[in-house]
Amino acid sequence: MTRFKLHWIGIVGLLATTAACGTLSRGSAAPSPVATPSGVLAPSSPGGTATAPSSGGAASATPAPTAATTASPAALRLTPSAPGPWKQALADDFNGPTLDGDRWTTCYDWNSGGCTNAGNHEAQWYTSDQVSQSGGALLLSAKRRWTQGSNGHDYPWTSGMVSTGRDSWNAPVRAAFTYGYFAAAIRIPAGQGMFPSFWLMPSSRTAPPEIDVMEGIQSTTAMEMNVHWADAAGVDRHAAHRYGSVDYSAGYHVFAVDWEPDSLTWYIDGVARYRVTAHIPQVPMEVLLNLAVGYPEAPPASVDSARMSVDWVRVWQH
Questions:
Q1: Where exactly are the structural domains of the chain?
Q2: Residue 15: burial class (beta carbons within 10 Å; 0-12, 13-18, 19+)
Q3: In whole angstroms, what is the distance from residue 78 CA to residue 212 CA?
Q4: Would you say the C-alpha torsion 175, 177, 182, 186 has a positive or negative sign?
């Protein structure tokens, strides 16, 4: 899968880093060179495909089990699927009337009355109004509504996101983690043109690296798992796997990654689906969940709204 990635440039003018399979940018910039994967790994079955690391490293796709071996979201909130011991470092069941502002902010670090990811050419302007809690779930709502951003640009959509990062550029980070088991029970939207993501970004605001726990790109039946790193020349490289066996918009599913010093293992509904053992990030990272719009293609005219629901989020560490 082709991705355009940019490295950190600065606060004023160009502001860029990686972002969930794209470029995260406050300004406008030309894309960096594209790193094309060098091969294809044997896919898991059914519905799994893996892309080999684009610059060295090891990756594998595990066989798909029968449905009986998967676990429910309620069971998976209690303990990681990976062997421990574990200590809980973050837990939110979103049971209150409003978002817990001590745990979450509703924009990227360059929040100024909202924010967006200009490098991906996304169609939404993120605002806190599109983030809510109801029925024990976090709701990230996208709506087709022209919105003027504080950057002076107009956006045809507004949407919601949350992060354990900063309220604004000079504010402190709420929480950043180095290694651990990161999990969330998510129901993705059914509408076309949406880009739901659960991912980790360096708290240093310098990227790559990046860990994408789950991305729904142009599909509700196949989710993507990725790790990004920079090679010696500064070119973004990645290892990726795409797995799907059900309609993930029909109910909650648990997406997780076990980030160890020497490996990354991705889980869907408690079952290991992908593993890499090279180019493992070694820096503190923030947790993000967002519902982007219009990447890589705009929603059809028939789609006016969408919602990503999150039942719970957990982070465990050794």
A1: 38-317
A2: buried
A3: 22
A4: positive
So what's the pLDDT on residue 255?
Answer: 98
* Cα separation, 158 vs 144, whole angstroms: 7
165: pLDDT confidence band, cut at 50, 70 and 90?
very high
Q: Residues 6 or more apart from 262 whose CB is under 8 A from it?
A: 277, 280
**pLDDT (0 to 100) of residue 28:** 30
CATH number of 38-317: 2.60.120.200
Contact 129, 158 (CB under 8 A): yes
Q: Which amino acid makes up residue 155?
A: Y
- The whole-number average pLDDT for the span 223-228 is 97
d(CA 126, CA 163): 12
C-alpha torsion angle, residues 69, 74, 80, 85 (rounded to 10): -120
In this prediction, what percent of the chain has a pLDDT beyond 90? 74
* Nearest alpha carbon to residue 182 among 66, 59, 89: 89
d(CA 117, CA 14): 12
The model carries a pTM of 0.86
Q: Using 50, 70 and 90 to split pLDDT, how confident is the model at 41?
A: very low
Distance, in Å, from the CA atom of 166 to the CA atom of 201, rounded to the nearest integer, reads: 12
Asked if pLDDT for residue 282 goes beyond 60, the answer is yes
Cβ count near 55 (within 10 Å): 20
